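Record type: monomer structure entry
Structure origin: computed from sequence
Chain ID: A
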Amino acid sequence: MSVFKPALKFSIALSLVTASFFVQAQPSNLAEATISTTGFGNLKIGMSLEEAQKALGEPLKKLGTAADAACFLTPTSNERLVLRVRGGKLVSVDTSSEQVGVTRSGIRVGETLEKVRSVYGKDNSFKESKSPFDQRPVTTVGAGANQVALAFTNGKVDLIRLGTSSELWGRCEP
């Protein structure tokens, strides 16, 4: 029996290391990353930029130039994900790709406004309005400190953004 103990210990250690690797190997899991009011897969609203980069497992490219707000883009060509940071903390995450992310209720970029209404329409926090920038239809879900917003073009979701309620419609300065 003692012959198997070292092998068992090695197997358990290998399993733990492998499990840890798969939790941090986020880029390959972005397609099925769950979007909620608290986060996007391993990304959590309020985490530091360093923590966000570690959660994604890849370097980020800075897009914004403003001193107090900056946007960062994952460099992978088929997984478009924009992170907005203010005061060193993650305040919003956007996806504009059908290949990246799905809400807890199964909505992703490309879904119709009718489907979104059928999924979220009975939620007390569901609201329909217009984007403050381009007046396109948007819906928001979430009544607390964070919300998920879906923006539409031609009746289909073309952007999913989660973020703090106060920063949900902030902009990235070029």
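Annotation 1: The first strand starts at residue 34 and ends at 35.
Annotation 2: The CA atoms of residues 31 and 71 lie 21 Å apart.
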